[in-house]
């Protein structure tokens, strides 16, 4: 039923193993010899004296200790599976209730346990659910596909997910508009409207987001002429705890409409949206490799002449991967080209590095050895899968990460060329496996006059990485958007020509080992803290709402709250929260920490 979220039972397999332990059979009965010894000690005749009593207590203590050690040893070492003993049940753990589930985000970096996870099937059910929850003051946090790295949609008290409200309700082919339920996934929407010759104006890297989710967190694609995704929304239906269902648009309550477009799920549950689409078109993707020095000469041209553009920087190298996407020319058609290298040739360096590294680390740690026959064929792995496997060998070793980065630079150098396809295929990006991400947004001048602050930011970031010898993997991704009119968007601006740069840093979590994931997490937050302290204020950079992490330190949290007030209309946002959600059933820990209200429920 949980179509869009990854759910797992909280009653873990290892607890089951503890409850049922076939490898720990019950102990045999105590030896008669042991009982005889105890009896002999207790009936021994000796003159009643303090020394004899002391002696007796000493031997009784030794005997009891011996018996305890025997039983403890018995239960500490596993028996073979075919041991002919009854199953031991030394301890019993009460299983968690059947209705208690653990809900986690995609990267496994945030999770909550909840008994209340609702999936209404239509607007009426949603309205009744919100009304009832408000009357009972029960949490009902809106959550989408669970893809946000910071788990912004999670709440232990209860959640509502619109995965079952995923229909296209109306298509206006002439005006290029579609009205949809907010639970529809991006890929599903694109597939359903392509027969009308329509598609979305822009896309984020992943297609599994629900429309309501990417709208509320201010998600974006790339292209200095294209705004974030919230700007594609021209009207919406919001189910609020205090005022019921309200319809918002530029004509109907425009101030609240713009505020609620990027409302972080705190003003109401987005039930329906009307989206301004564009004609479906084929794009030509062109991938080239350059360096920062040459890039500076052509940067303005790259932003102004390409519909979509992004840069991928490889730490500890001078490599910059340039990816541009533009409509196929109606006159010239798609470019005729022949790749210089095959896929196998492009993958050669990273495959060789994997073989060498695997041999090296196995020689160092005998516990990792296994026969080659058990190893999967590395030719079956994609580039991102192989990168994850390489990094998992030693993810925090700077020298090892540098080698992986150099292999990635070589992969991109041999992958230069063109690719032609529909926009929903071309604009996707394989982000790799589970990961920690921090993405900031900051002003970069105007389209007609870029400030070049975006490239200066990258130069300082790369220098920071090298100076502090951080094990920073690739890529550092840089994208651009036009401004948004939604005041809570990190790219909000009143100037129509303003452009914003978005820069993402990353550390992968290529292992399920808890200790190693903890170490990677600590290193990532050190990496993030350095960028925060040295770059954010200087460039007026603010984190993406789906990637902002709440500080645990009280002083740091207060500083973040004050900083957010200088950029966003926090007072207006909190005022709307009080009016629309007075009992704060839509809120969660992130919202309460970032936007504290003076009154407590």
TrEMBL record:
Keywords: Oxidoreductase. Gene3D superfamilies: 3.30.465.10, Uridine Diphospho-n-acetylenolpyruvylglucosamine Reductase, domain 2 (3.30.43.10). Pathway: Cofactor biosynthesis; L-ascorbate biosynthesis. GO terms for biological process: L-ascorbic acid biosynthetic process. It holds the Pfam family ALO. GO terms for cellular component: membrane. GO terms for molecular function: D-arabinono-1,4-lactone oxidase activity; FAD binding; galactonolactone dehydrogenase activity. Its cofactor is FAD. Residues 109-280 form the FAD-binding PCMH-type domain. It comes from the Eukaryota. PANTHER family: D-ARABINONO-1,4-LACTONE OXIDASE (PTHR43762:SF1), L-GULONOLACTONE OXIDASE (PTHR43762). This is FAD-binding PCMH-type domain-containing protein. It comes from Gossypium davidsonii.
């Amino acid at each position: 039923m949980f179509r869009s979220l990854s759910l797992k039972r909280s009653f873990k397999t290892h607890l089951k193993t503890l409850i049922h332990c076939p490898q720990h059979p019950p102990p045999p009965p105590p030896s008669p010899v042991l009982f005889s010894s105890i009896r002999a000690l207790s009936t021994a005749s000796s003159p009643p004296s303090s020394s004899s009593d002391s002696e007796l207590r000493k031997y009784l203590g030794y005997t009891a200790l011996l018996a305890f050690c025997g039983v403890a040893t018995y239960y500490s070492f596993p028996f073979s599976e075919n041991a002919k003993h009854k199953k031991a049940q030394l301890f019993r753990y009460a299983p968690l209730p059947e209705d208690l589930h653990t809900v986690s985000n995609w990267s496994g970096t945030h999770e909550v346990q909840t008994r209340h996870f609702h999936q209404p099937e239509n607007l009426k059910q949603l309205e009744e659910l919100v009304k009832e929850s408000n009357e009972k003051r029960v949490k009902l946090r809106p959550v989408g596909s669970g893809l946000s790295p910071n788990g912004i949609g999670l709440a232990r008290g209860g959640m509502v997910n619109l995965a079952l409200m995923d229909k296209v309700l109306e298509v206006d082919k002439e005006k290029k508009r579609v009205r949809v339920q907010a639970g529809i996934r991006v890929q599903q929407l694109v597939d359903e409207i392509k027969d009308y010759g329509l598609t979305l104006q822009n896309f984020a890297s992943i297609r599994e987001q629900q429309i309501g989710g990417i709208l509320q967190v201010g998600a974006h694609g790339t292209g200095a002429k294209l705004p974030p995704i919230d700007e594609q929304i021209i009207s919406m239906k919001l189910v609020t705890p205090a005022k019921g269902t309200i319809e918002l648009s530029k004509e109907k309550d425009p101030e609240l409409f713009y505020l609620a477009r990027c409302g972080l799920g705190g003003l109401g549950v987005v039930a329906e949206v009307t989206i301004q689409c564009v004609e479906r078109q084929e794009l030509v993707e062109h991938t080239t490799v350059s360096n920062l020095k040459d890039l500076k000469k052509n940067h303005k041209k790259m932003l102004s002449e390409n519909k979509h553009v992004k840069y991928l920087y490889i730490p500890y190298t001078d490599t910059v991967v340039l990816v541009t996407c533009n409509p196929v020319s109606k006159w010239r058609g798609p470019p005729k080209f022949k790749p210089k290298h095959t896929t196998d040739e492009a993958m050669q360096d990273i495959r060789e590095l994997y073989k060498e590294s695997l041999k090296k680390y196995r020689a160092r740690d005998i516990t990792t050895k296994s026969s080659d026959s058990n190893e999967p064929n590395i030719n079956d792995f994609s580039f991102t899968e192989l990168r994850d496997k390489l990094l998992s060998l030693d993810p925090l070793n700077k020298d090892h990460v540098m080698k992986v980065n150099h292999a990635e630079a070589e992969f991109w150098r041999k992958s230069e060329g063109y690719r032609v396809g529909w926009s929903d295929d071309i604009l996707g990006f394989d982000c790799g496996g589970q990961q920690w991400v921090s993405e900031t947004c900051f002003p970069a001048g105007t389209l007609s006059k870029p400030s070049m602050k975006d490239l200066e930011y990258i130069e300082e970031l790369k220098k920071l990485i090298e100076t502090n010898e951080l094990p920073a993997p690739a890529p550092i991704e840089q994208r651009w958007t036009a401004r948004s009119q939604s005041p809570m968007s990190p790219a909000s601006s009143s100037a129509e020509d303003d452009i914003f740069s978005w820069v993402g840093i990353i550390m992968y979590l290529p292992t399920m080992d808890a200790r190693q994931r903890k170490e990677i997490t600590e290193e990532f937050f050190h990496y993030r803290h350095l960028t925060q302290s040295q770059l954010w204020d200087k460039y007026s950079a603010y984190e993406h709402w789906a990637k902002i992490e709440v500080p645990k330190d009280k002083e740091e949290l207060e500083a973040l709250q004050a900083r957010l007030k200088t950029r966003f209309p926090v007072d207006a946002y909190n005022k709307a929260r009080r009016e629309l959600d007075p009992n704060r059933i839509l809120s969660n820990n992130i919202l309460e920490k970032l936007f504290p209200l003076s009154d407590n429920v």
